[in-house]
Specification:
single chain; alpha/beta; Rossmann fold; 3 domains; six-stranded parallel β-sheet; six-stranded mixed β-sheet
């Protein structure tokens, strides 16, 4: 589109008023067929497109949805964004994608961008630093739906679409017990995140209920390097674990780097299980057994909830996406 292809230029070229050109482009019945065809043919030739932001201001009806996540360099969020983008296109919305980089300060700065762009609704996954969600709740109070996804606040005063975090950890724990593992290195995410706390509590409760003799060694790596470091220390200890549980794909990559550095064989020397979006476990040989937590499916579910909110069904709701065990050869 040429930036100077404006309504004014169309009007001057055709010797028509701006209001006539505008109505012709909208197929207004007051404009003759001949004039409508003439205007629309010239608009097409000049690659004219309406100023969507100006239209939004006039109509107070944005066709842009915001997505704010900790990082786009992450297969889980990448697949989540892909699903939302697909659905948005089908519903004639576009998306504005921003990342916080795990900084609550950047998160608030991005929220200002979201407001300035008058988005119709916002999907947000919180940073590990976020403790106050009042800025998001204010946006919600201004009739802009906010759907918290994956990393969600503990409060019930918002719309949440989450993975079945407690169930995912329970399934993983049960799989480890079934494989008769007696010493498990369990690697969770940052302890500030509700997702970490929910998974840890369920994991520990499951072992306490069905295999209390199993030794659990808990770690909290917040990136791949920390995961590798914690795993290496555990594998070099006199009493080496016989299995590793990883809370996410990022944690899994670091743990597997340590396993390979120690030249251990999976599952002969050590068993491995993870909670995963589904792709990373398949790149290893043998494939890693995982509990599926699909970013793509979560994106589809979150968009359904957004559509409901935009349609006027604004009651607060927590929607949970179930998890399933996908067996590989690592236990």
């Amino acid at each position: 589109m040429h930036q100077n292809s404006t309504l004014k230029k169309l009007a001057e070229t055709l010797d028509l008023s701006i209001s006539t050109v505008s109505r012709a482009l909208k197929n207004h019945p007051d404009i003759s067929t001949a004039t409508r065809i003439k205007v629309q043919e010239l608009a097409a030739a000049l690659e004219y497109e309406p100023n969507n932001f100006a239209v939004q201001l006039r109509n107070n009806a944005s066709r842009v949805l915001g997505i704010l996540v900790p990082s786009v360099d992450n297969f889980f969020y990448d697949s989540f964004i892909a699903a939302v983008e697909q659905e948005a296109r089908l519903h004639q919305y576009s998306v504005l994608i921003l990342q916080s980089g795990e900084s609550s300060e950047a998160e608030i700065a991005n929220l200002r961008i979201i407001k300035n762009n008058r988005v119709a609704g916002l999907f947000v996954s919180l940073t590990r630093e976020t403790t106050d969600i009042q800025a998001f709740l204010k946006l919600q109070q201004m009739n802009t739906p906010v759907i918290f996804v994956d990393r969600v606040p503990d409060t019930d005063t918002c719309n949440k679409v989450c993975l079945a975090d407690a169930l995912a950890a329970k399934i993983a724990a049960e799989a480890l017990v079934a494989a008769n593992k007696q010493h498990v290195l369990a690697l969770f995410g940052h302890p500030n995140l509700s997702i970490s706390r929910k998974r840890l509590a369920s994991f520990q409760q499951t072992f306490a209920a069905i295999s209390p003799q199993t030794r659990l060694e808990i770690g909290y790596p917040f990136n791949r390097e920390e995961s590798k470091k914690i795993t290496l220390n555990a594998l070099k200890a006199p009493m080496r674990p016989d299995a590793i549980f990883c809370m996410s794909d990022l944690v899994l990559v670091g743990a597997m780097q340590a396993v390979y550095e120690m030249e251990l064989i999976v599952p002969g020397d050590i068993g491995v299980i993870t909670i995963s979006n589904g792709f990373i476990p398949t790149i290893y040989n043998p494939p890693i057994t995982y509990v599926e937590t699909s970013g793509y499916k979560l994106g589809k579910l979150a968009f359904q909830r957004m559509v409901s909110c935009l349609s006027g069904y604004t009651f607060l709701q927590e929607v949970i996406l179930d998890s399933v065990l996908v067996k590989g050869g690592s236990l």
